[in-house]
Amino acid sequence: MISTASPTTTSTQSQFLIIGYGRELQGGDDIGPEVAMAVTDWRLSSVKSLAVHQLTPRLAVDIAKADYVIFVGACGESCAPNVQIEPIVIRKPSSPHYTAPILALSCEPSTLLTLTHALYGRHPQAWLLKIPTERFDKGKSLSDTAHQGIDRAMRAIEQFVTTYQRPQCISQMSTPKGAAAKL
User: Fold this and answer.
1) Are 23 and 54 in contact (CB under 8 A)?
2) Strand, helix or coil at 175?
């Protein structure tokens, strides 16, 4: 697992978590980790990026600390030819003792969010970014479609970070005495 985040992220910044998942050596399936590693190279203090082989329950700790999460993975022939980004809606557990995902070795993004909510009483706003790819054969290189998808995914993530970044805290701005600060 690869991660980067500055421990000095200020309270005026939103914390983004990018989780790229997929297996290396499986052709296009490793597209999620590739995107996560590329986001790491941005070195943004408000963005933490993880490249993992599969989604596991222990990721709930990192998810609980984030304001926003984007899960990045490959999709095959059933996927549209373009990058897709979908909000992830969770079902809140009916029991306070919800433990099903803890027993699983691998989880879906919505299951991880449900687990995070059950353990920490909250979950971040989250999306699933699916990148089309054509090859999942062992040892095969990424297709042209996958390379184009990586570029589009990077632009989508950049747009999310820009859109959801919190403005500077009003109390840090100097306003004339008696004047109201405008948002």
Assistant:
1) yes
2) coil
Domain total for the chain?
Answer: 1
Residue 107: give its domain's CATH number. Answer: 3.40.50.1450
Domain that includes residue 98, residue range: 16-172
Strand partners, 71: 19, 128
Dig out the tokens for 16 from the structure. 């983004």
Q: Which residues contact 79 (CB under 8 A, 6 or more apart)?
A: 130, 132
Task: Say which residue, 146 or 181, is predicted with more confidence.
Answer: 146
This prediction has a pTM of 0.76
Query: Does residue 56 form part of some domain?
Result: yes
Residues 6 or more apart whose CB falls under 8 angstroms from that of 158 comprise none
CA distance 69 to 150: 18
> Coil, helix or strand for 20?
strand
Model pLDDT for residues 42-69, shown as the tens digit of each residue: 999 999 999 999 999 999 999 999 999 9
User: What is the DSSP pairing of strand 47-52 with strand 16-21?
Assistant: parallel
5 in any annotated domain? no
